[in-house]
Amino acid sequence: MGKEKIKICEEFYDIMPPEYRELVDSSTYGKEGRGWKDVGVAKELIEEHSLCAGCPESIAFRYVLACLPNPEDTVMVGSTGCTSLVFPHVAVHNIHSLFGNQNAVASGLKRALAHRFPGKVKDVVVLAGDGATVDIGLDMTLQSWFRQEKFLTICFDNELYANTGGQESGLMQKGFVSKMAPAGKKFDKVRLPEIAEESGCHYVATLTVSKPNRVEKAIRQGVLIAREVGPTYIQLYTPCILEIGKQAMEGLQEMRDSEGPNERFAFKEYISEEAKAYLASLEKEKKPAAIPTQG
Amino acid sequence: MGKYRVLPGPEAFLPPSAACAGIVLPDPGQGHINGEIVHEDVAMEEAAKQFLMAKVPTVFPGPLVLWNWNEKAAKKATAIKALYDELKSHNPGALLIPMPDYRPKYPKINPEVEINPNHPNLTIWHNKIDVCMFVGVHCHQANLSLKIIRGGTNCYTIAMCAQAGHEDAMLSFRDATPEKIWKFVEAVRKAKASGVYANPNGVTVSKA
Fold this sequence. Notes:
Chain A is of the alpha/beta class and 295 residues long. Chain A has helices spanning 18-26, 56-67, 83-86, 102-116, 130-135, 138-146, 192-198, 212-228, 251-257, 273-286, and strands spanning 74-78, 93-96, 123-129, 152-157, 160-161, 167-168, 203-208, 232-237, 268-271. In chain A, strands 2-1-3-4-8-7-9 form a 7-stranded mixed β-sheet, sandwiched between helices. A two-stranded antiparallel ribbon of chain A has the order 5-6. In chain A, helix 2 (56-67) packs across helix 8 (212-228) and helix 4 (102-116) runs parallel beside helix 6. Chain B contains 6 helices and 7 strands; from the N terminus they run ββαβααβαβαββα. In chain B, helix 1 packs across helix 6 and helix 3 runs parallel beside helix 6.
């Protein structure tokens, strides 16, 4: 689609506030190769946000939005959490579902879009926290994977229920003590990436957002594979600096410390054979055709 | 208790919707003035009169007409700009302020350049707007804004609605098409030509 649908009526161009004119004139919609390097210069990628200063989730959110290959035809489905405070500031379609229902809503939406816009690429991306993905919404998350629904599920894993005061979540690490879980977590962090793999996801990645290039590649692969092959899942570590007792400038270091080779967020990636073949075909399309040799 | 009338406020913080007070929407070909159903032509005359008598007549175009998303929107935009030009030529204080979208804008909006449905009173107060018209605003957001304006300001509100009209406006049209907006432009021209309504700001407007 690109920018052709995002035009201001000629008569009103001069009275529109400048940020809307800039959105139309210099947004990244329809731009080939958009990515995290557009953050900070493109209006639709959250110029201002309402999250805490230094929040790693706000960084992750920007990277995700910057790396969507087809933002003008993407619908993001989320549930209650800090991200829902940011979505009203973002020029990407969003549905705020009932807590935990995000994968069920996305399933219906993806099917409806395919029916309503046949032959047109419409991406659906679920973006939810660990409580919605793994605890309250686990049923909906798994069932969508079992059914091979074609959309990407992104879990912003901050290892607790952050905006309600720090309650224990399934993805919290064992032994961690939080404000509302003073006895410490008694069991291990749920291994959702492994469960996703077993449940039929064709692309599964676990990482932090300390390395934007890596996040960009994961998000693009997640969306593209989901579009053509089947469900995909990305678990991003986005620590809540308030709830783990860090300062605003310490979020990045916290992520770096958690992604060492033996740490819980060491980079891991699983790609099914079918998805590998699809990615290879995309690469082949990108390369110029070989020049035929004579003789 | 007497029959409820939709009048300029300030009525109260969080006033009840006019529908709750028994105001009903007009049928096709009709409009309403203060909640009374009238013929559409009567409503047009009254709206033109209110605009011409206003100190700061203002048109608030919403996203449905600001954004060029189909041919009809572009045609409506042309008609709305013509309406504004008519008002401006009568009263240099006339304003055209957009409502580009509905998101809550924090930490603040600039009331000089835009209006937001979540706090429209800020733009009304800042610019001392006494008569305004909503056009191209989705119904649920228009209802919200009209109620807030009626609750907290003394502004006279007109709704040029593309659907069934608005009870919460002091004057409402329905089924707005580009042709209907042009018809309203003509009504304003006619009222101006009658010479009955002097420029309330007392400024002499020279013809170009």
